[in-house]
Structures are given as C-alpha cells and as structure tokens.
C-alpha cells in the first residue's frame, strides 16, 4: 500500500471528503437533521461540527421539503451546500424541490444559472428498519434530466465521487448504502476525484458480464469467486453512476462475454436493470448475445421487517450464482 | 382621473401631512413607480391580446389589479437584492427591473427571451436583476428564498430576499417549513403573501383556518403586517420597514398584501366562483387610479406628466412586441441544451 493510502471505512471516507471540501472552499457547508453534535444518524458527519462550527455543519429542523429548498436557494446564490437526508426514504418529502426545482431551474431559466448542490441519501435494506427506512429509490431520481446520480460502492469511490460532486456545477445526488458505511478499504489521503459517469470494472472475466450497483457489487464479486471455482469466469462492472450512465463500458464488456446479468437492490421492474438491458438491446452488442439478458432486483413488495423476509426481498449471493449458472450453462 | 382637484393650494395643504413614505421617495422614484405600474398593466393587456390572436401559446396568469403590490414591495430593493416569484409573476418581474421586450420575447418562445424560450410566462426570470424566477409550483419559491437569504448571511452581504406567494400557497407545507427556518436562523427575508382572495376558485374563507394570513406570523415569532395591497404607499411603507429590519439582522417579516385579481385565474377560468358585483367593487379600487389620484392630490405629479408616462409605456410595449416577433426561435436540435452546465 502506498504511504499515503490508509484503510478507512466508507463513512470515514465520506467524512474526510466533506472536511477537505470545506477546507478548500469557504462556500461549502453541510446541512441536515442531527448532523451536528449528534454526528448524523449514521455518524457520517461525526465530529465535523467541532472542527468547522455550527455555521458550516448546520442542524436543520425536521423539514425535508423546506430544508431541500433552502439548499437549492443557497446553491443558486453562490454557496455549495451538501445536504444530508437522514434516510433516503425521506427524500419523498422533498421530491418537489429536488425534481421540480433543483433539476429544472437551469433549463427553465435558459442556462442563465446553475445549481451546484450535493445531496446525500443513506439508502438500502439490511438494517431491520422495515418498509419506510430501507428503500433504494435511486432509480426515481436517475429518471430526472438535470440531476446526476451516483452510487459509490467503496470507501475510495465514496470520497472521490463526493469531491467530484462538490466540484460539479449541477445537482449531484449520492446514494450511499447503509450496510457499506462500516466497510473498510484503501483511501488515498488528500484531494482526488472519481469521475461522475464512469463505470469501473472490478473483476475481469470472459463468460458473463455482471453489471451491479452499490452493495450488489460486493455480492457479485463474492458470487464471481464461487463461480470461478466452477470454471465460470465472470466480469463485474460497478456502474457507480446511474445518470449519466457509462453505457460504452457495458457494451464493450458484453461484446467480450456475450452474456449480461444486472444486479441491483431497487425494485426489479422499471428500474436500473431495464435501462442497462435496453442499452444492450439498442447497441451493436445485441448481436453478440448468446443468452437472454437477465435482471436480479428487489422484490415487488415493500421491504419487510422479519430478517428472513428482508433477505428474501433483495438479491443474495446464491441468487447471483444461480442466475450466472443459468445464463452460462443454460441450467434450469 | 382626479386632475381637476389639483389646485396648488390644496396640494400644499396636503403636503404638510405628507405620509412618511413620500418623504423617503424622490419625485423620480414615484414617477418610476407609476411608470412600472402602467407598464405591468399594459404588458399584461398586450400579452393577453397576443394570446387571443394566437401569437402566444400555453397559459398565463394575469395580475391586473395587483400592480401596487408588486411595485410597492420592490421599492426598497436594488439589483443586489433577490426575489422569488410565482406563476402570477409578471408584475414582480417588471417591479424588479426586467425589460419588457425580453419578457415578451420569452412569451413568444424566442431565443432573445429571458429564458431563451425554455421557460415561458410561468418561469420568467431576470437573474441579472436578482429575480430568481417565477415558479410553476405553488409555494415552490418560498424555501428557495430562505436559502438565498441564508446564502447572503453566510457571505456577509447586506442583501435581502423577498419571497412573493399567494394566499393559496400559505396552506402548503413549504410555507410553514420555510417561515420556521427563516425565524430560527434570523434570516434577511421578507415573506409577501399577495392575498387576492382566491387560490384558483377556492376562497381563503374556504381554505384557510385563520381570518388573516398575517395571523400565521405569530406561529413563527415574526411580525405579521396587513396592508391594503391596492394602495402603493401602504405597501411600500411596509416593505421598507420589513427590509430595514431584515438588513439590521433582526430577521424575517410576513407581509399580507390584501388585493384582488381582476382577470380569471388563468386562460381557462369561467369565473363561476365569484360575482360580477364583487369584481366591479374591486375595479372601482383600481390601484393605478388610486396612486395617480394620491400623487396629483399631493402635488407630486401633474396630469401632463401622467400622460407622458402613459405615452412612454405605449412606445415601450409596441417596441417590445416588434422585438419579440423579430427574434429567432430556438432550434429543435437544441432541445437538450442547458439541462447541464457545459
Ligand atoms: C403544488 C401545486 N398545486 C397546485 C397547482 C395548480 N395551481 C396553480 S396556481 C393555483 C392557485 C394558487 O393560488 P394562490 O397561491 O392564491 O395564487 P394566485 O393564483 O391567487 O395568485 C393552483 C391551485 C400548482 N401549480 N402547484
Ligand atoms: Mg390567490
């Protein structure tokens, strides 16, 4: 490991990115519910308030719609707010400001302004918090032109994408999987960015392309390790960015492997998988396919409380292994 | 008109008890305010006519009858101050200093419009003058105004932000969340509810639990002020006071400007929810007429000067219409331009 690379958790990496952003640029400040002395519901802001003060790490009232609008207004007039939703589910209360305002103001005003706003959304299931605290709504926002939507899967990318988001002149929505917050990984010190709109190949393979997002990247890598023992050589692409989506990377990979499986935690239908599949169906890679495209996504239900049901509601490693076998060996 | 009443003796007698606001504003300021009120009126009448002739599509919300409110509120504002506006925002836009030719070009959907033809009436904005935009979402601009005020405070600027909205908007959650935050953080923002009696067809009586919107200010520990929205002097005085307070760092004010929209809600309104008598009673209280009478009575303007203002406005509108018609349309190939910053 390089001297300037340490092991940090995903949450620590995000915190470090926010600290660097605030040190570098006076316009950057944080807003959210209980992000000050409490440190944030997932301890992502942690002790930043002690370092930067209450003016730059601002606790808001429990007012998601109003708070989001305040962030939009501040971004429009010279500031660079980073707004934390306590849970991504609560973004539903702020959809007005995100979808009708932040995403569209630049366009509606004929390009005369931009909205340099970053929003962070702790998302995903696996915490036993049930239906209103476990959703993966990233595809909702990815459907909206004017927004950029990213989903880092590693501490390295969580830091680099956040710094890229702060530097971006347009609104960037960052979906952070709650189960990843404690995951550790190598993170370089200092400032660096990970480009928005670029996928990353996490594992090279010849037999099957798995396109995955967030925690499903790790599950897919676990599945790939098992499948390797059976002689199935899987390529795993971490999508990282939903809008803009790196379709060239998917197309190139599928041209090599001739098979595509898309794995994501959001509800299966009308989601990320549909878009990834269509990207192949509409491209020259379609002619290379040796098997139907397949999706593994969240169940067509709200997220349940019971732990066994909760696991059953989202793709797990054995599901990915079984799907891969089916595609590669045409097993039933 | 009240020209006949302006004999010099009467004028100086009135001048002795000139309202404070008329001492604060110069004769030029007052003439400019009257010009803007006429400009708004004639702008909207011309836009309406162009619409009927099929030159403008979509819909629009006219503020005829509410001109004193828009112009009076904007009196203390400079280009460094911001406003957020509403679907009924033509008056606010002109009040904040926009050029009618670029507004008309926008209505005609042209490249020379303020929003390059992408926004239309409902998103009209002249950002260079501090207008952050009309809004198609009822209440949408209120939290944004609070954010702009937070931004000014953080940047140590002396600017204030005015958020215009209607009586209907005061029942949106955004209104309540925004007022609360502005008060908690003592931000330099002035909330201006233009209460024209109705949100589309629904009267405030049927929609709002308190008799006055201003009553809601007490829930957010800020002053709530009621003004006659058809009386320029009253509106301007309240706006100066609220803006001064905001600039002193004492926090927000809620002004309720009681007024009336003479036209229907939008192009599709059949006026089934109000009586002809009600409309006529408000037409008799036309804000432009009231302002002109007061200015002449006080000897602050002559009938000849008023005629000159009207003539100037006619020229500006006619030139604006020509400009708008001559401006090029956007190219269909540019449909996705301006979604993101290049
Ligand atoms: C969130 C939202 N709900 C409903 C509408 C449809 N709508 C447009 S204007 C309007 C009435 C608004 O009333 P008010 O706030 O009093 O403003 P006014 O039209 O009287 O100026 C309605 C219901 C909308 N544009 N946005
Ligand atoms: Mg109304």
UniProtKB/TrEMBL annotation, chain A:
<dbReference type="InterPro" id="IPR029061">
    <property type="entry name" value="THDP-binding"/>
</dbReference>
<dbReference type="Pfam" id="PF02780">
    <property type="entry name" value="Transketolase_C"/>
</dbReference>
<dbReference type="InterPro" id="IPR009014">
    <property type="entry name" value="Transketo_C/PFOR_II"/>
</dbReference>
<keyword id="KW-0786">Thiamine pyrophosphate</keyword>
<protein>
    <submittedName>
        <fullName>Pyruvate dehydrogenase E1 component beta subunit</fullName>
    </submittedName>
</protein>
<keyword id="KW-0560">Oxidoreductase</keyword>
<dbReference type="InterPro" id="IPR005475">
    <property type="entry name" value="Transketolase-like_Pyr-bd"/>
</dbReference>
<dbReference type="GO" id="GO:0016491">
    <property type="term" value="F:oxidoreductase activity"/>
</dbReference>
<feature type="domain" description="Transketolase-like pyrimidine-binding">
    <location>
        <begin position="8"/>
        <end position="183"/>
    </location>
</feature>
<dbReference type="InterPro" id="IPR033248">
    <property type="entry name" value="Transketolase_C"/>
</dbReference>
<keyword id="KW-0670">Pyruvate</keyword>
<dbReference type="Pfam" id="PF02779">
    <property type="entry name" value="Transket_pyr"/>
</dbReference>
UniProtKB/TrEMBL annotation, chain B:
<dbReference type="InterPro" id="IPR050642">
    <property type="entry name" value="PDH_E1_Alpha_Subunit"/>
</dbReference>
<comment type="function">
    <text>The pyruvate dehydrogenase complex catalyzes the overall conversion of pyruvate to acetyl-CoA and CO(2). It contains multiple copies of three enzymatic components: pyruvate dehydrogenase (E1), dihydrolipoamide acetyltransferase (E2) and lipoamide dehydrogenase (E3).</text>
</comment>
<dbReference type="InterPro" id="IPR001017">
    <property type="entry name" value="DH_E1"/>
</dbReference>
<dbReference type="InterPro" id="IPR029061">
    <property type="entry name" value="THDP-binding"/>
</dbReference>
<keyword id="KW-0670">Pyruvate</keyword>
<keyword id="KW-0560">Oxidoreductase</keyword>
<dbReference type="GO" id="GO:0004739">
    <property type="term" value="F:pyruvate dehydrogenase (acetyl-transferring) activity"/>
</dbReference>
<dbReference type="GO" id="GO:0006086">
    <property type="term" value="P:pyruvate decarboxylation to acetyl-CoA"/>
</dbReference>
<keyword id="KW-0786">Thiamine pyrophosphate</keyword>
<protein>
    <submittedName>
        <fullName>Pyruvate dehydrogenase E1 component alpha subunit</fullName>
    </submittedName>
</protein>
<dbReference type="Pfam" id="PF00676">
    <property type="entry name" value="E1_dh"/>
</dbReference>
<feature type="domain" description="Dehydrogenase E1 component">
    <location>
        <begin position="35"/>
        <end position="332"/>
    </location>
</feature>
